Amino acid sequence: MISSVTCQPNYNSRICLRSSNNTSKTKYKANLNTLLTSLSSKSALYSFYNDSFNGIFSLYLCRGDLTIDQCQNCVVNASQGIRQRCPSDERAIIWYEQCMLRYSDTNFFGLEQTDIKIFMWNVENNTSPNDPDVNTLALM
């Protein structure tokens, strides 16, 4: 019998920001839940996806070296984690080692934003930096 084990992705950090634009917290939370559920289902097909629903804009991005199953696992966990860690915020970003998920009440698609910075690093050594089987561009 072969069994599959799904590991929890490693949580790194988050940024939660409130906004004054929101008139109805209950409606916003319901719309956000709908959108995050949609993103979680899309992660079974794509390693990057952006979407919007009723004035909420969101996206996720998985690391390039992940399988689609690993990506989906991370996005599902991130969508749950962002709701727990930023329960009353209209703007939030959450980072896991394997993926990033973001939502906002303002459209950020196509906009360069350099004001939000989180520094992360990996303490693991790359034992084969010149290995031709590693597609460096796919990892970026």
UniProtKB/TrEMBL annotation:
This is Gnk2-homologous domain-containing protein. It comes from the Eukaryota. InterPro entries: CRR_secretory_protein, GNK2, GNK2_sf. Keywords: Repeat, Secreted, Signal. One of its GO terms (cellular component) is extracellular region. The keyword Repeat applies. Pfam families: Stress-antifung. CDD domains: Gnk2-like (cd23509). Its main location: secreted. The lineage of its organism: Eukaryota, Viridiplantae, Streptophyta, Embryophyta, Tracheophyta. Residues 10-108 form the Gnk2-homologous domain. Gene3D superfamilies: Gnk2 domain, C-X8-C-X2-C motif. Belongs to the cysteine-rich repeat secretory protein family. The keyword Repeat applies. It is found in: Secreted.
